Amino acid sequence: MPTRKFADGEVVMGRWPGSVLYYEVQVTSYDDVAHLYTVKYKDGTELALKESDIRSQSSFKHRKSQSSSSSPSRRSSSRSRSRSRSPGRPAKGRRRSASQSRELKDDKKKTIQETSLALPVLVYVSSFNQKPSENNTKRYNGEPESTEKNDTSCIILEQKLKPDLEIKRVLEQYSLRSRKDDKKKEEIYSEKKTFVAVKPIEKVPTKTKELEFGGRIGTFMLIFLLPATVFYLLLMCKQDDPSLLNFPPLPALESLWDLRVFGVFLLWFFLQAMFYLLPIGKVVEGLPLSSGRKLQYRINGFYAFILTAAALGVLLYFQFELHYLYDHFMQFAVSATAFSLALSIYLYVRSLKAPEEELAPGGNSGYFIYDFFTGHELNPRISSFDLKYFCELRPGLIGWVVINLAMLLAEMRIHNLSVPSLSMILVNSFQFLYVVDGLWNEEAILTTMDITHDGFGFMLAFGDLVWVPFVYSLQAFYLVGHPTTITWPIAAAITVLNCVGYYIFRSANSQKNNFRRNPADPKLANLKFIPTATGKGLLVTGWWGFVRHPNYLGDIIMALAWSLPCGFNHVLPYFYVIYFICLLVHREARDEHHCKQKYGLAWERYCQRVPYRIFPYIY
């Protein structure tokens, strides 16, 4: 077993991926399995490097040029040169000594080597120095145009090698590369590019060291607390007085399970799976994985929604009683919980055989309970069927709309209404718009933390299949048993509030997703950003210059609009907005931690530029 060469905490020189430049880094940890060192640059960026890419600092101090003497062809040609004096040749009688000649040669060779070494840095800098009409990374706060550096050695080299014309002259005179290589390099590092994306280093996931959600104890408790919360909320909605202090009586255990209900749930799940496998819709690539590979995803969620609506129309035409969902709502929740638990067990068992590079960055702790909850494998697939991606939008999100429709029909049947109540119409309309928007912009989910960072375990399986359809539909379920009358002016005010939240949510997400997909798009020329060492940019204009998470702000405003039609008699309908604020504040803290580790100094500058996290002037 090879022994490690560098100790934790040792300051060494690490090579930046894809270049010949070395920067001062500090060793933070070592992976005995992958034989990779995790190092931290001065700007806070953390990367995994091989031992061959790390050198001790002593090897960079007072290092003399080791280039060989002139080639034989150069020596032979020197004999045939004219004896006439060149402008740089000393006059007769003032010949340089041998030692002086050697020193001048060494100085010249050293200059050539430094020039070749600095070329990637200078090209990288020039790619960001754009024309006034293009994306300018620094003008947002009046700072001079410059790019972030990991070490002051780059600045020293640039000062030595100014001006650029002198650099070009030296390179043309002494470069040993062929013109073909120069032309190829010039095409790659053309200054016409408005954004340069540095290819990420191939990083094998290491053990998860920082545990979230309270660690092993917290995740163990959440496995029982989350289902209990769902059952409690549904039982409370059935109460005539759903006050917090009025604890509902526990139902008989045999009444919670119905094999027919479980069969209907399975039919629904596999129907959506069949729609997912249909060869309709475009196929797109996700973001690069740690290995550099990109997975393919079929975008057909909106088509699945249309097919589901057609199937429901056929059932209603043949007088199928959709309020069956309302009558057996608790049993459906229990069936969905049992299925999500079985799915989670399957996901964990199969993840034990998954390759190391396919494990989730946040679910590879080595602790069974924690990895079972957060998800051990990042993208579990059965052939081309992506289990996590399928569950994110299909069974739960589309099921949410179906449940709301069932509650609307149940209200009309129970209260003998010819048309639904205004409160029920508002709740159904607002949430229908939200679901359709998510399915129409299905491709945007590929850049979210759920897909790129979190594994697929109990947390996401339960959240997608149980929490979303049965908790998010809580307002509609509440209105069936507790009808609330609102006036048209109040309904109009609530509608305006929902539209404001939706506009913020959609426009902010569109800005972010378009910029991530193609930052060089001319349509985004008015957006300004802060460059990072990873090659990505942090937007500092538009909604993302207002608060750090404007999409969360829009989400919370919409959540409030969904609860207001239920009135103010009880706090139960407002559980969703209270929970959602807690969820998004916690997710924002997770984002903050990951971005600080990923972007380092650039993230600190972004936080100074955009001080408010979600709520402007408040938080």
From TrEMBL:
InterPro entries: ERG24_DHCR-like, Lamin-B_rcpt_of_tudor, Sterol_reductase_CS, Tudor. It catalyses: 4,4-dimethyl-5alpha-cholesta-8,24-dien-3beta-ol + NADP(+) = 4,4-dimethyl-5alpha-cholesta-8,14,24-trien-3beta-ol + NADPH + H(+); 5alpha-cholest-8,14-dien-3beta-ol + NADPH + H(+) = 5alpha-cholest-8-en-3beta-ol + NADP(+); 4,4-dimethyl-8,14-cholestadien-3beta-ol + NADPH + H(+) = 4,4-dimethyl-5alpha-cholest-8-en-3beta-ol + NADP(+). Residues 76-97 have a biased composition (Basic residues). It comes from the Eukaryota. Coiled coil: none annotated. Residues 53-110 are annotated as: Disordered. Pathway: Steroid biosynthesis; cholesterol biosynthesis. Its EC number is 1.3.1.70. It comes from Picathartes gymnocephalus. It is a multi-pass membrane protein. The chain crosses the membrane at residues 217-235, 255-278, 299-318, 330-349, 456-480, 486-505, 526-547, 567-586. It is an enzyme of class 1 (oxidoreductase). Belongs to the ERG4/ERG24 family. This is Delta(14)-sterol reductase LBR. Residues 66-75 have a biased composition (Low complexity). Keywords: Cholesterol biosynthesis, Cholesterol metabolism, Cytoplasm, DNA-binding, Endoplasmic reticulum, Lipid biosynthesis, Lipid metabolism, Membrane, Nucleus, Oxidoreductase, Phosphoprotein, Receptor, Steroid biosynthesis, Steroid metabolism, Sterol biosynthesis, Sterol metabolism, Transmembrane, Transmembrane helix. Its main location: cytoplasm. One of its GO terms (biological process) is cholesterol biosynthetic process. PANTHER family: DELTA(14)-STEROL REDUCTASE (PTHR21257), DELTA(14)-STEROL REDUCTASE LBR (PTHR21257:SF55). Residues 4-62 form the Tudor domain.
